[in-house]
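Protein modeling request. Please complete all fields; requests missing the sequence field cannot be processed.
Requester role: graduate student
Desired output: 3D structure, token encoding
Chains: 1
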Amino acid sequence: MKVFVAFEGLCESFDIFPEDTVKDVKLMIKDYFHVPLSEDKQGRRYLELIYAGAVLKDSWILADVGISVSSTIKCVIKEEDKPVLYVYNTVTHEKVPIMGKIYLLSAKVSQLKTMVTLKCGFPNSIYCLRTPEGREMYDCNILSDYQLDIGTSLHLDVWDGWKEFLTGCLLGNKHKVQHYLSKEKPVVNYQKRVALYLAAFCGHLQLSAWLLKQGARPTEAVGVHPYREWCQDSRHPDVAKCPVHAAAEAGQLMMLKAFVNYSILCLECQTSAGQTPLQLCIQYKHKDCVLYLVTKMWSVVSYPNFSLPAKIYIKLKLWLLKAQNNICRMKRRNQTAVFRTRVGDIVLVDGFTKPKMTSKSFYQATVKNSGKKQLNNLLQRRQEAYCRKASEGNQKGPNLKFPPLGDANKSAKKPQPKKRSRKKCGFLCNEENMDQNMCLARVPLPPISILKPPYYYSIPDAKFLLNSSLESFSEHSGRTPRENAIYYLALASAFKEKPWLQQLSIARTLAKKSISKSVC
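Delivered output (520 residues):
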């Protein structure tokens, strides 16, 4: 049959067979128009065919998607750059692409961590990066020192026992954040600063309001973990960033309003590079935030008898706070120096101490290990007590024998039914689950289908296929027949220029092809 292809202002006819695939047509177009295509590690240049508003996949047959004689197909050239590196986030289970040129591999690890922070919102002091082999990457080293190649997937690991806490921060769940706070006071204060930073980046107003009541301040730097306070020389410069800087980088207008209303000093809060929130908003092109901050900077602070411009008021307040700090230092001059860390506290030094950033869950880090030890100790004590009573009593009769400790543990455990684990969508879902959720939202189906579709009876030996082949189909395709129908209905709905009945026939044809391939 003859179809027309529109390419860069031209419309040419092509003679194709009904069983030809989209890939075959692309090869014909490439040879006819002499289009140079390429694909390497840095990017690729390829052709894309569009029909009735939908992008055609290479494996589709033209007749299956309703392309008839004299149909017109649009052809365009697409160019895309591939990410230089990927970072797998162990908290959200997402693969974050890091775009850039090949020259990024000659940069330091600290620069890469700055880019990762802008992508996921995690402060630099709560995570570390590891190579695919598990080697920890230090900020002072260069990426090329770890022999990384383009497209390498790095791992982002956080502090042990922090996964649930960080998940609660990303979701804005106040109760979950409160439940997974540490019992150590210095660590709790650090966690509150981290939680306010993440709440500002994600725009969670309720969580930020609760943290402000708990003593966290938007102008206070996140800093480093209390275990790393002695390692000042190896600190990342971005640890001096405050929650108000995170809100400015992410363009969270409501968070900026809340922080400025809480303290007007947020307008002049500077990073280690001397950037204010207004300069950050200008750098990342957040127009609404820029207009709001400019209006606040040129506003007037009124009192009963006089008024001051906001800039002068901020300078006076900063001078007053500096004077108060100097007075406190003079009072403590004759007293013993007060340090944040004390004798006996944990100190972590890169390359010398056992790493504490392995992304263990809260229960793996605290509850499970201690629970097993307590259970074993309790069973051992009971067994020793019974043996001691039996030996001291000198009772006549058979000797008491107790099962070994391993059997006791096994007998104490009762078989429990397996529980199906449900993953929360939004942070703990992969691409297949996201596609299925989108399909369910776009194509609603009844819970139980009583009538079978017409093409169901067109397959020979339907009863035999119902008992044996459907299981093999699910194993090969990874979807149940119902999910397969929803998937192809969602694909067919992309043909927006087609009526609904034609979309339904396209979905039936594609589903039939997939079932027949699995059966064969």
